[in-house]
UniProtKB/TrEMBL annotation:
Residues 1-41 are annotated as: Disordered. It comes from the Bacteria. Residues 12-21 have a biased composition (Polar residues). This is Histone methylation protein DOT1. InterPro entries: SAM-dependent_MTases_sf.
Length: 217
């Protein structure tokens, strides 16, 4: 009788622990669903079926897929990064997703998008700071962040000038793109049709060798 009782108690403990883990997982997923729902609703209201797209002072802006970003950021353990910086942050979607994991900053040249991004972040009550700077990121030195994010509308040709050789952070590039000079791809992720590539900056010696092979100044 005692063995049967002990077995039932152990089964109940296991069931309770499993339910607790499932509940925690659901709670962790909930903020992500809130962000996804918020931005999908805003994009439908503003852009209809054509999807989020706008010409800015620095080129074309299009939004990433929020569910893809959340998947990528979880896979990459983004919480281990000290500061996430989105180069061309648009309406703040990537920054808001990143702020579930760590402090996030967006740099955006379009004043209207920058104001919209700030309003989006405030309405979502994010667990980490989400800040926005209205500026041209190519005129700044974003290497103080240890995670840079970019969804390029053209080849990211000047990134090697913004980030010095030996920078120990991670560069995340969303969507199809030409590999940036001075960086090495270390990981490629896919979620449905969406892709994200993780790059590391070459060391000083590697950068010199890369410079010699390219023959470019």
């Amino acid at each position: 009788m005692e063995k049967v009782t002990d077995r039932r108690l152990n089964q109940r403990k296991t069931q309770t622990a499993t339910q607790g883990a499932d509940s925690a997982a659901v709670q962790n997923e909930e903020p992500g669903r809130k962000i996804s729902t918020h931005f999908r609703s805003r994009h439908r209201e503003r852009f209809g079926d054509e999807g989020p797209y706008k010409m800015t002072p620095k080129g074309a802006w299009a939004a990433s897929d929020p569910d893809a970003l959340l998947f990528f950021f979880r896979r990459l353990n983004l919480e281990t990064c000290r500061l996430f910086c989105d180069l061309g942050s648009g309406d703040g979607l990537a920054v808001c997703c990143a702020a579930l994991f760590t402090t996030a900053v967006g740099i955006e040249a379009d004043p209207d998008l920058c104001r919209e991004a700030t309003a989006n972040a405030r309405s979502l009550s994010l667990p980490h700071p989400a800040l926005f700077v209205c500026a041209d990121y190519t005129r700044l030195r974003p290497h103080h962040a240890d995670c840079l994010y970019l969804y390029p509308d053209k080849p990211p040709a000047e990134l090697h000038r913004l980030v010095p050789p030996g920078w120990h952070g991670r560069l995340l590039i969303y969507g199809p793109h030409f590999p940036p000079r001075g960086f090495r791809c270390e990981q490629a992720l896919r979620w449905e049709r969406e892709t994200l590539h993780l790059y590391r900056r070459l060391s000083h010696e590697e950068a010199r060798n890369d410079h010699g092979r390219s023959g470019k100044p």
